[in-house]
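Reminder to self: keep the SMILES exactly as supplied, no canonicalising. Ligand is glutathione.
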Amino acid sequence: MKLYTNPASPFARKCQIIAKTLNVAMEDVHTMPLTDETLRTVNPLAQIPALVLDDGNAMYDSRVICEYLDHVGGNQFFPRDSRRWPALTLQSLADGIASAAVAYALLGRETPPPAATRERHQGAILRGLDALEKTALSDTPLIGEVAVVCAIGYIELRQPDLDWKATRPKLAAWYAKICAVPAIAATAKPKT
Ligand SMILES: N[C@@H](CCC(=O)N[C@@H](CS)C(=O)NCC(=O)O)C(=O)O
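Structure tokens returned for the bound complex:
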């Protein structure tokens, strides 16, 4: 299997954490989604992550790929019992924060940056982090916690000056601890 990916992508990192944890063999194909013509033949939306199976069939987006990898690897991250809906809702919250953070970063490269739209995305990020502060997060990650780690990791990468920790001490303490989980540490992008 091949995963079209980029080291900065919070969505691709979700897939990598699950594959690494469950020892699912997957080759990374590093790409720049905005310019890669091949990616467009794999995923018409031209987004990463996209997974190409050994039979040539493709799968996207991160939610589908993560659940597929979990299925192949023996089912650990997507519970079938009553924990399922809170886990999927937490994934939606975290993915929404990551989407807003990606949009915020991309809009910052425009000249002039569209201030009102960026502010709307930043509002979603901050409110999302506030909601996470009030959420019980487990030290044994399910898909929701995996997505939260990836969203916060991306914010740390792209907005290193955002002091989100001071007013969210529970979330900050949880994040510091969860970053030591081997598959999470192994997929962290070093700050450059
Ligand atoms: N909902 C998608 C979001 C994927 C996404 O936004 N990927 C970004 C990179 S982090 C991308 O490929 N952007 C290029 C584009 O949208 O043209 C998922 O969960 O996989």
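Points to follow up:
The first strand starts at residue 2 and ends at 5.
The longest helix spans residues 84-107.
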